[in-house]
Every structure is written in structure tokens, then in C-alpha cells.
Amino acid sequence: MKNEVESGQNNKKALINRARLVGWMLFLLAIMVFAKLIRVQYYDTFKGKTWAEYSEKNDLKLDTIPAMRGNIYASDNSLLATSLPYYYVGFDTKVADSAYFYNHIDELASLLAKNFKENTAEGYKSKIMRYRVSKSKRYLRLKSKEITHLERERLKKWPFFAKDRKGGGGKFETIYKRYKPFSPMADRTIGGIDPKSGRGYIGLEASFDKQLEGRPGIGWVEKVEGGLKIPVGDALNVQPAAGRDIYTTLDMNYQERTEIALRRKLLEMDADFGSVIIMEVATGEIKAMANLTKRGPGKYEEVFNYALAGSNDPGSTFKLATMMALLEETHMDPDQVTVNTGDGAMKFRNHIIRDAHRGGFGTITASQVLEKSSNIGIVQLMQRYFANKPDKYLGYLKQFHLNQPTGIHMKGEKPPLIRDRKSKQWSSYSMYFMAHGYEMQMTPLQTLAFYNAVANNGYWVRPMIVREIRNAEEIEDKIPPYVEEKPICSPETIRKVKKMLEGVVNAGLAKHIKSDLYQIAGKTGTARKLINGVYTEGKNYTSFAGYFPADKPKYSCIVIIDNPKSTGADYTRYAGSVAAPVFKEVADRIYAYDVAIQKPVRDSVPEKSEDVKWAGITNDLNVISKSLNMTPAPEESEYAAASLYKKGKTKWNPREVDARDVPNLQGMSMRDALYLMENKGFRVTFKGSGKVVEQSLPPGSNKSGSKTILLTLQ
């Protein structure tokens, strides 16, 4: 027991002694640091003066040195935004000694005149000489505009800029400029930098400013005439740390096609603005976000993010939410329940509710109410099932995530405005106007997130636009998709409304965008614009929201076009004629590009083509056939194909490849098929090895417009 006590006391003494030792070491270190500061301030000199003397004159200060801002990348690692260094060229005329100065001033003046061309050699020399002898001036900029990094490297070989023991005086003031290789594509989404503060002020640049900006360095600068700050020496007290890199979900191929389709329709309709968002159903990844505003006759630019902050009455796209609430509440069979819409006009509480179809739809089913977008039909269904249950209806809207922002990791999202009965603007007929998309405010992104949940079998997914934040190649923050665990409604309701949304395209108001290659599901929306408190005839906010392919949805999309103008019939200003065609064009392009969602087509392959054993360039095949003692291929055609018949005998057929958009590739090697298709401008992907046995685009005319083909080899 005694030994244990003594052992404990010894351990305690050892710990105390170690603590004292550490304390003394820290004390000595503090004294050394303090002594170093005194030495630097009062004894180290620069240009014959101590730092304390400079500080007293208030012309030498510690200042922040900007860091290199991080990059922004697309989903395929294409560069969307980066910072490039530029430099102002300055000259401290009093640094070099007299002998060096007068021996090299003529050479410097000549180089300045030859390269900068802002003055003559004599003019440059005269100005430098005036500053050299002046008592109040010493530093001047030699070029009004900044130079590039490559130009800076060349200038570093000039006199006064090259490292020389008795020379010096040449200075470079570093600034960073943001460069966007794809500009003006997605300009508003990527964002911009405030030139004064260097901080992001819109878009992703603002939303992820803290990660992108990095940590500034600290170094001595000398404040000279004109308020300019020039660096003193090359060493910095604290080195700047570059900002982090942002990896987005944007696909610039989709972005380009989206902006082209949107701009074309805006020009055609002379509309005020438009927006398109493309989102991946399962993950919520935004693949494209286009926002174009009219800036003059025939001119559209990205100046405002309508997708994120452009609130408006959504119009008939909101009928999907109302129909889902009705189905959840009643469990009705929408093909059996009917309403009588009459002649297309119905008086309701001193208001006239009209259907877009003049003359009315007569008696239609609940499914047709959505397919034909009947305002009268949706109001009658609301009267029948929710007349005394407004809170129940509002509860369903909350359940569908329609009364809250999406929470996308991007600044500027405007919250939706869905009134409840506590609102001063609530009236006894508010619910009925809300049922078909009025008396509310929603952004396109919020509407799209709702439609995306339907496409995702009822599971709501938060839209996302950034995947990762990296420090060089090291991933510091990975942003995973966020999917709600609980669906927004029952599977039965999802099944019913999916069928209705397909019906809108197959037989309803959007039947003209039906595709033979894949199924589109979606809903049109046309809302009169609220101007000075009045919903104005002829001023429309048009939209189409939906997803594709409908059987296995991969992408959801919304198109917004505001105030389209037309001298034709009223319907030419409605969503079916304005927004829906843009949706179709964008969806067609994506379907053509994304091989994974294409259905293999084999019905156009020639009869008994499975018997083809070889195909390719005729000359190459004849070399092989000669070696194998086979019948040679006919040489009247550049390409040929061989099949076996009657006890292994070979039959040759010429194969035409030049006149067709898509030639028959069956039996060809990957090398020959790749050569043919890439020369025709196609992007070729493949799976397997051996000879081509199947191609995603059938031989003949390329009706789909796709420029991507998938080859199956075996």
C-alpha cells in the first residue's frame, strides 16, 4: 500500500515538473517573438528607413492581399467560372541607383513605346524623369489597362523589372478577373462578382461566396500618390489561400439546347421573358436553368433568375394539386365521376368563370377535367367535395410541399404565397380560385419540384445544383440528394394522376407535342397577369410542367413564357401553343442525347439480317476472303456484307452507306462503324465486343433527330 502511495506521489511530481517545463518554454518563445517584432520594427531597414519610421509617415501599412477565387465546374468537369490574374504595370522611379537609372532609362522608354503604344519613347522618358526628380511624386502606372500573366513574364526581362542588384522599381499590382468560358450561357445562374469588393453578389457566386473566396494574405504595401497601394518586396507575412472549387449538376449540352429553344420561341412570340428548368427526377439535380429577359427589339439576355425568384399565379398547372387533393379526400374513380361544364361559362359569386374552349366541353369526367384543363369542371368538383372543408384542402396543399420554399442551396429563392384563412385577403371564394391557380404566388422551381414528386412516385426531392465542394482534388463537402421518406400522397392517387397527365398529351390540350418515340406527361398552364390589381385580358403567363419518358421518368421540366404576343386567335397565346412546344423541343434533344433512355429499335433491320456474318469495306473483306479461299466480294460498292447459306457458302451483297442518314451497321467491326458514324456527325457509344448486332437508331432516315447512337457488339 505504501509503495502505491509513493508511486502516485512520484507520478504527480513528474506531471507538475513537465507542466513547469512547458510553461517556461512558452514564456521563452513569447519573449523571442516579442524581440523579433522589436527588431523588425526598429532595426530592420527598407530603403534606408526602419519600418517604424515608415509607419510614422503613414505610407507603409499591412494590407490584405486577395486570394485566388475558387473555380465553378459543370457536371462533366467543364469549367464554368475561374479567376485569371491580371496586372497593372507600375514604376517606382526612385528605387534604382543613379548609374543604373540613366544607363537604362532610354531602353525602358523605347520598350514602353513599342509595346504599350500609349506614348512616344520621348514622352515616356520625360514623364519618368519628372517623377524621378519630384519631391512629391515617385510612382506612376506605365499602362492604363492591365496586362496578362504571359505579358508579365515577358516584362520581367526588361530593365528595372528584371532582378538586378542596382536596378529595380518595376512593380506589378495583381488583380483577378472572373472568366466564364460558356458566357452568356447560364450567366444568371452561375452569377457574378462585385468588381469593388470581389465578392459574389448573384447566383452561385453569391450562394457559395464563403467557400469560393478563399483566405486573403497579409503583406506590406506602400501607399503612394493617388491612393495607390504598391507591394513592398515579394515576401508576404501571410500567404493567401485559394478558394474552394464548386462542382455543380449543370450539363452545358442541355443548357445550350434549352437556351436555343427558349430564345427561338421568345423571339417568335415577342414575349417579355422566359425560363426553363430541367431536373433529374430521382436526385433533384438541376441539369439546366435558363432565364432570358427582353432587353430590346429581338434581344434577350440573362438578367434575372425567374426560375428561382419569379413568383406568379401558376394558372392551370396548379390543377394537378387540386385533383390530387380531391382524389386523396374521396378515393373516387376519376373516369366514373362526371361534371357538366355547360357552354364554357359559369357565373360564380358575381364572377364569370370561363373555359378556354369556346362553346364548352359539356359533360366530362374528372379525368377529362384535368386533360382538357376545364376551369368550370375543377370549381364544380371543389364545390361538391370541399365546400365546407377549406382547411382540409389547405392541409393537402401543405402535405404536397406547396406552401414552403424548396430549400435549394442557392440564395434568392422567393417563398411561395399560399393564403390560409388567417390571411386578411382570404374570402369565401378564395379556395375556388386557388383550385385553378389564382390568388397565389409560386416560382417555377416550386411548381417543378411538385411535378417531380409525382414523377418520382410521390416522393418529394429537394432540387440541388451543387454536388461537391473540393480543395484541389480533395472532397471537403459532398451534398447528397435529399428525398422525403414519406410520399406526399397514396400510390393509388399517383397512379391516377400519372394517367391523367399522359392523357393531357395523348388526347388533351397538349396532344400536338405527342412523340412517337417516347411518352411525355405534363400539364399546360395559362394565367392572366395581375396588373394594377386586375387580371388583364390578353396578358398571359404561360407554362408547361411535366416529365419524360412517362413510363420510366428520368427528367422533369418546366417552361415559362411571359406575355406572348400574337395577332392570331386567342389560343395562339395560350400555353399549349407557346410553352408546350418548347418543352417538346427540349425533351426531344435530351432524348436524342441520352442513350440510356432510348428504346432499341430493330424493326427496320433487313429481313434475315441476323445471318450477316461480316460487313465492312469491300477491299478489306476481299483480303480476308482470299486468305480463307472464299468467294470474293463484288467491288462495285465500297462497302459489302456477307451471309452464309447452303452448307456454308458465302453470299455477298453491296451495302449503301453514303445516301442514308443512318446506315445498316450490322456485322461491321467497331472500327468501321465508328469511322462511318463519326464522319456523319454522330456520337457513338457501345457495349460488348465483337461485331455490331444491334443499333439504337434504325437504318434509313433519322426521324428522331438524334445524333447519338448506341451499338451492341457480340
UniProtKB/TrEMBL annotation:
Gene Ontology biological process terms, A to Z: cell division; cell wall organization
Pfam families the record matches: PASTA, PBP_dimer, Transpeptidase
GO molecular function, one term: carboxypeptidase activity
Gene Ontology CC entries for this record: plasma membrane
Keywords: Carboxypeptidase, Cell cycle, Cell division, Hydrolase, Membrane, Protease, Transmembrane, Transmembrane helix
SMART domains: PASTA (SM00740)
Compartment(s): Membrane
Polar residues bias (residue ranges): 698-714
Record-given protein name: Cell division protein FtsI (Penicillin-binding protein 3)
Source organism phylogeny: Bacteria, Pseudomonadati, Bacteroidota, Cytophagia, Cytophagales
